Structure formats: C-alpha cells, structure tokens
Amino acid sequence: ASMRNFYKKTIEGFMLQSVPDKQIENNIFSLYKQLMTSYFKEKQLIPNGNLIELKFEDFEVNTMNELNRIYSELDISGFERAKNKITSYLSSVSDYKKNKYNLTHEIITSIKRKWDFTIKKWDYDIPSELIFLK
Predict the structure, then answer these.
(1) Residue range 42-92, pLDDT digits in tens
(2) What is the pLDDT of residue 16?
(3) CB contact at 8 A, 4 and 28
C-alpha cells in the first residue's frame, strides 16, 4: 500500500500516459519479488559484520535499543555521542501518526500469495491496522 501510494503521488505526475491500477499493482508485486529474490540469493556475498536485518516493528517499539544494536553489530563508533541528538529527534517526531491504508480483500490475498516467500522467511503477517475494503 505504501508503494502504491508513493507511485500515485510521485511517479504518476511524470508519466506521458495513464497506466491502469491493476498494472501498477502487478508491477509492484513483480518488482518486490525480483528485489527480494535477488537479496536472498546475494546477501551471503556481503561480508560478516557488514549487514544487519531487523523488523521495522521492533525498531518502532524499541528504537534506541535497536539503534544501539545496529551500531554495535556493524562496529560503528559514536553511538554514545549521537544518543542525545537521536533522543531529541525521536522526541520531535513522537506525535507522528503512520499513514493508514485501505486494502481490498483481493489485494491482501495477492500479497499473501505473491509475497509468501518473504512473509514466511521473516515470520511476518499482514499488519492488523490495515483497513479492509469490501
């Protein structure tokens, strides 16, 4: 939903012809699958200590601990120096409300079917805060 929203608000304005919504959805499904397939295939080429994976949900809930873990696991210095600025920034965006997306049952079914390989690999599920349209 986020990518579709990005597409509609950003890319569509630069197009010389219109593209049906169904084609946009198919393109998004296809590109994500290509991207993640390549990532899973090639991530072992990244040297140990140069990659960290985390769930966005964990990052949202425990941002400072996750940032500390990122700095630590990637052996990046300066977390203690940056801590106050990070805390200040997080305070400045504490009232931010995430976008809500309206998805049809058909789109949810397509997500589960077409992206099943990533959903299972990362033990994800469709977020409960999504709004379903009939």
Answers:
(1) 999 999 999 999 998 899 999 999 999 999 999 999 999 999 999 999 999
(2) 85
(3) yes
Segment 113-120 long-range contacts (CB within 8 Å, at least 24 positions apart): 114/29, 114/33, 115/29, 115/32, 115/33, 115/36, 117/33, 117/36, 117/37, 118/32, 118/36
Query: Which ranges of the chain would DSSP assign to H, the alpha helix?
Result: 2-6, 21-42, 56-61, 63-73, 79-92, 105-114, 116-121
Give pTM, 2 decimals.
0.75
Cα–Cα dist 132/103, whole Å: 5
DSSP string, 79-101: HHHHHHHHHHHHHHTTT------
Give first-to-last CA distance, the chain, whole Å: 16
Closest CA to 118 of 46, 52, 38, 57: 38
